[in-house]
Prior knowledge:
By secondary structure, the chain is of the alpha+beta class. The protein has two domains: 4-258 and 293-369, Chorismate synthase, AroC fold (4-Layer Sandwich); 370-400. It is built from eleven helices and 17 strands. It has helices spanning 31-42, 50-53, 83-90, 114-121, 127-133, 138-153, 173-178, 193-208, 238-247, 343-366, 371-393; strands spanning 4-8, 15-21, 58-62, 64-65, 68-69, 74-79, 158-166, 169-170, 215-222, 252-257, 275-277, 284-286, 294-295, 298-299, 304-310, 321-324, 329-332. Strands 8-7-9-15-10 form a five-stranded antiparallel sheet. It has a four-stranded antiparallel sheet with strand order 1-2-6-3, covered by helices on one side. Strand 1 (4-8) and strand 2 (15-21) form a beta hairpin. Helix 1 runs antiparallel to helix 10 (343-366). The longest helix has 24 residues, at 343-366. It is globular and about 80 Å long. The structure holds flavin mononucleotide (FMN).
Amino acid sequence: MRFGFSTAGESHGPGEVTLVHGVPAGLGLVAGDVNRDLARRQRGYGRGGRQKIEKDEIEFLGGVRHGYTLGSPIAMLVRNQDYANWEARMTPDPPEEGVPPTKKVTLPRPGHADLAGMQKYAFDDLRNVLERSSARETTARVAAGGVAKKLLAAFGIIVNSAVYRVGAASFDKERAALLAAKADDSEVRCPDEEATERMKAEIDAARYARDALGGEFVVVAEGCPPGLGSYVDWRDKLDAKLAHAVMSINAIKGVEIGLGFGVASRRSSEVQDEILLSEPDGELVRSSNRLGGFEGGMTNGEPVVVAAAMKPISTIAKALRTVDLSTYEPSRAFRERADTAAVPAAAVIGESMVAVVLAEAFLEKFGADNMTDIRASYDSYTTRLRDASRNASRDPETRP
Ligand SMILES: Cc1cc2nc3c(=O)[nH]c(=O)nc-3n(C[C@H](O)[C@H](O)[C@H](O)COP(=O)(O)O)c2cc1C
């Protein structure tokens, strides 16, 4: 089975479940590999009270033995600590006789799945929608990303991210991408102290105004070999798969690869990355990486650079107008505990989704059963590419 994952779980239910399939046998994997990113997802200036309740850690329920993957599906569970406060409202069991039913939520929040979700699934309680559409589900995605990142790291592919905008406070996107490995030092995951302070002030001002903010982040994957993905079939174009995966994150409204929308206003010579020979080795290198590591739907050996725009958090203290679906009277949106800004967390989720897509393409190219065979296939490919320049410079008579 191809590498991929599914998730299950409601925000205030017993837990978040991740099932990762297509993981090769023989990959070293311990809970700490995954928990590190779960903790990074929970941090960030501007988060709400929920993160103080939860301490996200996985339990492996299958697929790992004695620190190594078995090639079977990997099942992971993160228990929701908050379930203890929500058991009566979220229990899977039918209500006991004589116990009054829990209060229905009927005030859909603009900007959420609430209204269309109730219409689509014929619910009269929007809790049935919001519990699953909540970004709490991204906990399970980050768990899958932890597995993908461990696999990629075994081949020198490292995925990082950085925030370069929160509301009106911004930092240079290219520099953010270059410095992404340092982003965890900042409370907003922006690798610049001065910009960090401006972003924090922006969050404070939005909170004071009982409003909320979005922003922009960039994910960078270094060390990808050329040729992941394919130009041959539209479904295999890897930049498109990345766009899909990153756009699927809650509140993401735009995705860019490299310059992204910036390509439209420039001349061609300011957009393409010229192909040069390095000195003294004569290896193929690029003059720049403006296309974010992609040509023809394939990685080209340069770092993969994917940026995303997140809309402001929809649930705000200054409650927005809505209609009560039990009476069809004008009203104000229902308010559940909410973040003021969650761009730093979204960036970590972005890393996870990028890692999952790259891992799938990597295993598609190099095989998927076990790490030994994948390593042999990877070494043979990278050796062929490295040797090409040496062979080309030889006398044509002796060229293989
Ligand atoms: C990490 C993260 C945290 C979020 N926290 C909140 C929140 O506290 N309150 C809220 O209303 N929306 C929050 N959102 C956004 C909603 O989940 C999202 O807007 C909603 O599910 C609707 O999806 P859409 O914006 O993609 O249409 C968060 C999103 C992310 C990625």
